[in-house]
Write a structure and sequence with these properties.
40% helix, 15 helices, single chain, 5-stranded antiparallel sheet
C-alpha cells in the first residue's frame, strides 16, 4: 500500500560515474581502476554499494535516502563517531571520504569506507555452538565496556567541529590532543528533526546535566504540538475502531507531557556513576556485527544516529540478546522456536548480564537499579512523536505514580510527594484501553508477518502480486464477516492494507 509514497522516499538520483571517481580518489586511485559498482543492500535509511577495484580491493559507498534525517548532521555525526570510537580501540571500518551535502559531483551525501572483513553475525548466529555464542557475547560486552569508559562532557552527538557552522553550540571533549577536532554537538537522533521539527528553533543540545536531558524531549514535543498538532486518527488503522472511528484530540497528550515535566527531575538517580554521559551504538544487532572464521569480531558498522545520554537512559540489553518475555515450552508449535532455542535465548540473556557485571560495573548497576527500565521507557515515550494517542506515555506515568517511592530519588532522606494523581477508575479505564490497543497492534503485526510485508508495507518485488492478492483476500473476508452496512463502510474506509493518508487526517 501507499506504493507511490514509498518509491518517492527511496528514489535517490546520483551520478554513478562521479561516485566511482570519488571512491577511487579516496584511496589514491584513478577512476579507471574501478571495474564495477554494484548494490549491496537497501537498509532503512541508506542504499549501500560495493565498489570493486582491479586488484580485488573492495570499498563500501553508502548514500542516504532522501527521507533520511537530519540532513547533513546524520552523515557528519556518523563519520565523526566512527573515527572517534576507533581511537578508543573499537573495531570499526576506516572512513576514506565523505560529503555532508548533496552539492557535489555525486549529487548526494555519501560515505566511502573500508569493507569490513568477514561475515555478519546474523548469517551464523542461529547455527553457532553454545560456547561460540558466549565467546561472541563476551567480545560484545568488552566493546560496550570500552565505550562506557569514555569520558564525555554532555549529552548530544559527536561531530568534527569543522563540519558544523560556527554558530552551532558545541562542547570540546576532554583529554584529546590539541589537534583533534572532535566535539559534542546537537543530537543527531531523527526524532529531533522529524517533520516540522527540523524548522523549529529548538535547543537540540548539547545538555550539561541529566535533568536537562530528561526534560528536553518533552519540551521539544510540546513545542511541536503547540504549533502543528491537530485532531487525527491513530496511526494504526486497526486501532481506530477502539476510538469509535473518531479523531483524537492532541490536548490529552500535551497534558501528559506536562505531567512528565512535573516529575522528571525527581527521577534522576542519585549515584553519580548512573548519571555520567556515555556513547552507545544505536542498534547493536547481529546485522551490524562482523566476524571472521575464528569467531573474532572484525568490525561494528552502522553508527548513524548515535547519541550520548546519561547511563540510566542508555541502559538495557541489546534487543537481539535479551529475553524478558518467556514462552511456555509446552505450548510451542511448529511456527514457534524450539524449546532448545528458547533455552539458549535465556542463557544468552543471563550470560550478557553476568559478563556485564564482571566487565562493565556501571552498566550492571544501571541494569539492576530499581525500576531502571521503567525510567528509560518513560523517557522514550515522552520522546515519541504524537501519532494520534497518548496511551504509552500515560501508561508509563501511571506506573511511575504507582511505584513512586521505589523509583523517585529521595531528597534529604525523604521522598517528595508524587505530583501526579490518577483516580482508580481513570487508571482502570486507561489500562483496559491500552491493553486492547496493544492486542490490536499485535494482531496487525501477526497479519503482516503472515502476509509477508514489512511495517511500512514494503515487500520484495518478486512477491508483490502474491502479497497484494493476499491483502485483497483478507479484505473480502473482513467484509463478509461484517454484520451491518455501517461496519462494511468502516472496513472499506479504514482497511489497514489499502492506500491511506498516513498523516491521520482521513
Amino acid at each position: 500500500y501507499n506504493e507511490p509514497r514509498r518509491l518517492a522516499e527511496l528514489y535517490l538520483k546520483f551520478n554513478p560515474e562521479a561516485l566511482k571517481a570519488v571512491a577511487a580518489s579516496s584511496i589514491g586511485r584513478s577512476q579507471e581502476d574501478v571495474i564495477s559498482i554494484s548494490k549491496l543492500a537497501e537498509g532503512g535509511f541508506n542504499r549501500t554499494f560495493t565498489v570493486a577495484m582491479q586488484d580485488g580491493l573492495e570499498l563500501i559507498a553508502r548514500l542516504p535516502y532522501p527521507i533520511t534525517i537530519p540532513k547533513r548532521y546524520a552523515t557528519a555525526s556518523e563519520v565523526a563517531t566512527i573515527r572517534f570510537v576507533s581511537t578508543h580501540g573499537i573495531p570499526v571500518p576506516k572512513i576514506y571520504d565523505y560529503s555532508t551535502t548533496s552539492r557535489n559531483p555525486v549529487g548526494a551525501e555519501y560515505i566511502i569506507m573500508e569493507k569490513v572483513a568477514g561475515k555478519s553475525l546474523r548469517t551464523c548466529w542461529s547455527s553457532m555452538a553454545r560456547d561460540d555464542r558466549f565467546d561472541v557475547l563476551d567480545q560484545l560486552v568488552r566493546i560496550e565496556a570500552a565505550l562506557f569508559a569514555i569520558k564525555l562532557p554532555a549529552s548530544g552527538s559527536i561531530y568534527h567541529r569543522k563540519d558544523l557552522d560556527l554558530e552551532t553550540s558545541t562542547l570540546p571533549i576532554p583529554g584529546l590532543p590539541e589537534d583533534a577536532d572532535f566535539c559534542v554537538g546537537p543530537n543527531a537522533l531523527s526524532t529531533w528533526w522529524l517533520d516540522e521539527r527540523a524548522d523549529l528553533s529548538l535547543d537540540r543540545g548539547p545538555y550539561l546535566t541529566a535533568q536537562d536531558t530528561m526534560a528536553s524531549v518533552a519540551k521539544r514535543e510540546m513545542t511541536w504540538m503547540t504549533h502543528y498538532a491537530k485532531p487525527r486518527f491513530p496511526s494504526e488503522n486497526l486501532c481506530r475502531e477502539l476510538f469509535d472511528y473518531q479523531k483524537i484530540q492532541p490536548t490529552p497528550h500535551i497534558e501528559a507531557l506536562s505531567g512528565y515535566l512535573r516529575i522528571s527531575d525527581h527521577l534522576i538517580p542519585k549515584p553519580p556513576n548512573l548519571n555520567r554521559f556515555i556513547l552507545r551504538h544505536p542498534d547493536l544487532s547481529p546485522n551490524n556485527i562482523f566476524m571472521n572464521d575464528s569467531m573474532e569480531i572484525t568490525g561494528v558498522i552502522d553508527w548513524q544516529h548515535s547519541s550520548i545520554l546519561p547511563i540510566f537512559l542508555h541502559v538495557g540489553i541489546p534487543n537481539d540478546f535479551q529475553h524478558y518475555d518467556d514462552v511456555d515450552p509446552i505450548v510451542l508449535n511448529e511456527e514457534q522456536e524450539t524449546a532448545t532455542e528458547l533455552s539458549m535465548r535465556r542463557e544468552v540473556h543471563a550470560f550478557y548480564i553476568y559478563r556485564t557485571r564482571e566487565l562493565n560495573a556501571d552498566h550492571s548497576a544501571a541494569l539492576s537499579a530499581s525500576y531502571g527500565l521503567l525510567r528509560k521507557r518513560l523517557f522514550l515515550s515522552a520522546a515519541d512523536a504524537w501519532r494520534g494517542d497518548n496511551l504509552n506515555l500515560k501508561t508509563d506515568l501511571i506506573h511511575v505514580s504507582q511505584f513512586w517511592k521505589q523509583i523517585a530519588s529521595a531528597e534529604g532522606g525523604c521522598f517528595p510527594e508524587c505530583p501526579l494523581k490518577y483516580p482508580e477508575e481513570e487508571i482502570k479505564e486507561h489500562l483496559e484501553l491500552a491493553g486492547k490497543v496493544k492486542e490490536a497492534i499485535d494482531d496487525v503485526k501477526r497479519v503482516r508477518e503472515h502476509i509477508g510485508m514489512s511495517e511500512s508495507g514494503c515487500v520484495l518485488p518478486e512477491h508483490y502480486d502474491e502479497i497484494k492478492a493476499r491483502c485483497q483476500q483478507l479484505k473480502v473476508q473482513s467484509l463478509q464477516m461484517a454484520g451491518t452496512s455501517l461496519e462494511k463502510n468502516e472496513i472499506l474506509e479504514h482497511f489497514p492494507f489499502d492506500d491511506h493518508d498516513e498523516s491521520g487526517n482521513t
